């Protein structure tokens, strides 16, 4: 026998730990269901941004897919294609940035304190 152990004695164990684990599991499952519902709702949301004083308008959905792109004909200059490219990139990047902020904000409402724990999907 190991040092400090007596014959017939069982090691001490904690009582009631399983109940807490079950409660935590139920909470995580509820959180997961809420996250899935929120993600489905966000996928259907759309967000529109503009660039060049409204000359370029981009709409993205919650999946960060462009669903609409409008270019004012007055901004189309065959001698300055680079400006048009810059405006489109600026509008697209801003739309994606705003959608990412929206998604992160909505998910943080659900995950609360789990956000900084490095748990995948939280």
What would you say about this model in short?
This protein is of the alpha+beta class and 122 residues long. The protein is built from two helices and three strands; from the N terminus they run αβββα. The chain has helices at residues 17-44, 81-111; strands spanning 46-51, 56-61, 66-71.
CATH superfamily of the domain at 36-111: Nucleoid-associated protein YbaB-like domain
The helicity comes to 40-55%
Low-confidence stretches: none
CATH class of the domain at 36-111: Alpha Beta
The span between the termini is 46 Å
Spatial sequence of strands, sheet with the most strands: 1-2-3
In DSSP terms, counting alpha (H) and pi (I) runs of 4 or more, how many helices?
2
The CATH topology of the domain at 36-111 turns out to be Ybab, Chain: A
Principal-axes shape call? elongated
Please state the structural category: alpha+beta
Give the total of beta strands. 3
Mean pLDDT: 83
Listing every helix as H and every strand as E from the N terminus to the C terminus, the arrangement reads HEEEH
Described by strand count, sense and barrel closure, the largest sheet is:
3 strands, antiparallel
Q: At CATH's second level, what is the architecture of the domain at 36-111?
A: 2-Layer Sandwich
Structural Rg: 26 Å
Strand coverage percent = 5-15%
How is the secondary structure organized here?
Blueprint: H1 17-44, E1 46-51, E2 56-61, E3 66-71, H2 81-111
Antiparallel strand pairs: 1-2, 2-3
Helix pairs in contact: 1-2
Word description of this protein:
It is a single chain. With 122 residues, the protein is an alpha+beta fold. The chain has a domain at 36-111: 2-Layer Sandwich (Ybab, Chain: A). Helices cover 48% and strands 15% of the residues. Strands 1-2-3 form a 3-stranded antiparallel sheet. Helix 1 runs antiparallel to helix 2 (81-111). The longest helix has 31 residues, at 81-111. It is elongated.
């Amino acid at each position: 026998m190991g040092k400090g152990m007596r014959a017939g004695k069982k090691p001490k164990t904690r009582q009631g730990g399983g109940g807490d684990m079950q409660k935590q599991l139920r909470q995580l499952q509820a959180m997961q269901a809420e996250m899935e519902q929120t993600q489905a709702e966000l996928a259907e949301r759309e967000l529109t941004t503009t660039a060049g004083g409204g000359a370029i308008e981009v709409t993205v959905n919650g999946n960060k897919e462009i669903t609409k792109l409008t270019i004012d004909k007055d901004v189309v200059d065959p001698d300055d294609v680079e400006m048009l490219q810059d405006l489109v990139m600026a509008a697209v990047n801003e739309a994606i940035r705003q959608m990412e902020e929206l998604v992160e904000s909505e998910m943080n409402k659900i995950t609360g304190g789990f956000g900084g724990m490095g748990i995948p999907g939280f």
